[in-house]
Amino acid sequence: MNDQAQIVTRFAPSPTGYLHIGGARTALFNWLYARGRGGKFLLRIEDTDRARSTAEATSAILKGLEWLGLDWDDEPLSQFARKERHAEVAREMLAAGAAYKCFSTTEEIAAWREAHPREPFKSPWRDATELPDTPFAIRLKAPRSGETVIEDAVQGQVRVANDQLDDMVLLRSDGTPTYMLAVVVDDHDMGVTHVIRGDDHLTNTARQIQIYDAMGWPRPVFAHIPLIHGEDGKKLSKRHGAVGLHEFAALGYPAAAMRNYLARLGWSHGDDELFDDAQAREWFDLSGIGRAPARLDFKKLEHVSGHHIGLMDDAALLAALELYLSETDGQPLSATQKQRLVPALPALKEKARTLPQLLDQARFALVERPVDVDEKAAKNLDTVSRGMLKSLTAAVQHASWTRDELEQAAKQVAEENGVGLGKLAGPLRAALAGRTATPSVFDMMTALGREESLARLQDQTELAG
Question: Which segments constitute the Aminoacyl-tRNA synthetase class I anticodon-binding domain (predicted)?
Answer without folding.
Answer: 334-459
